[in-house]
Amino acid sequence: MKTREIAAEHRKVEWKQIIQERAVSGESISQFCESRGIRRNQYFYWQHKLRESANKELIEPFGLDATKSKRTQVPSGWAVAELRTPGKSMLVVEISGCRIEVTESTDTELLVKTCHALRSLC
Length: 122
Fold this sequence. Notes:
The protein is of the alpha+beta class and 122 residues long. It contains four helices and three strands, in the order H-H-H-E-E-E-H.
């Protein structure tokens, strides 16, 4: 890995911690940024970059990107489960009594939004 890539990854990790700290603090973004000497536009820039990165992590491994290529990689913290029913591919996720069934015909935008919502609860 090149020096620039290492530095970029380091900044992403730092900003992920800052954004998580703000969420836990209960402060508004304005209050949080002001109290820590962070420019609001810088905060929003990194929030946007991290969301893009998270989207990429969620979409690409499941073959939901524009190329529709099949992937076997899974985002960290996630597991792949496959139910084998003749003629039908389906993924079922059950968490605390909530059940989500994903098939080949599932709307990818809905799936991405659902994954974001689940991630925000963790």
